[in-house]
Amino acid sequence: MSKCIFCKIINKDIPAKIIYEDNDFLAFYDINPKAPIHFLIIPKLHIESLQHLQSEHTNLIGRLIIKANEIATNLGLEGYKTHINTGVKGGQEVFHLHIHILGSK
Asked: Which of 58, 71, 79, 88 has the most neighbouring CB atoms within 10 Å?
């Protein structure tokens, strides 16, 4: 995972504008925003994509979705889009599972 840019952000080897962090998740603003508010939330556990989820990830992924909503609400978003690219043909560019949250106030 040492080549994964998101793992490098988790390890603080690369800076990011972090919104939220706990033992399991990291949320930070997208460096190329597509909306007035555009952030990513990632699990700290390196999971390449949705295609790589296993049953043991069920609790983690459920909590990831809940946390994404909590952060969006705390940022004042009344509505927002969530977006997950999966695999090369699905437009995924960084192969560490991440959810884009896009919205405006």
From this structure: 71
CA dist., res. 9 & res. 28, Å (int): 9
* pLDDT tens string 44-101: 999 999 999 999 999 999 999 999 999 999 999 989 999 999 999 999 999 999 999 9
The residues carrying an active-site annotation are 98
* Domain spanning 5-103, CATH class: alpha beta
Which pairing describes strands 99-103 and 80-83: parallel, antiparallel, or unpaired? antiparallel
pLDDT higher than threshold 70 for residue 25:
yes
Q: Identify the residue whose tokens are 């043991």.
A: 56
Amino acid 2: pLDDT: 65
Phi, psi of 22 (to 5 degrees): -140, -165
CA gap 47, 42 in Å, rounded: 9
Place of tokens 């405006």: 104
Question: ∠ CA(72), CA(76), CA(79), 5° rounding?
Answer: 65
Kindly tell me the sign of the dihedral angle through the C-alpha atoms of 84, 103, 68, 94: positive
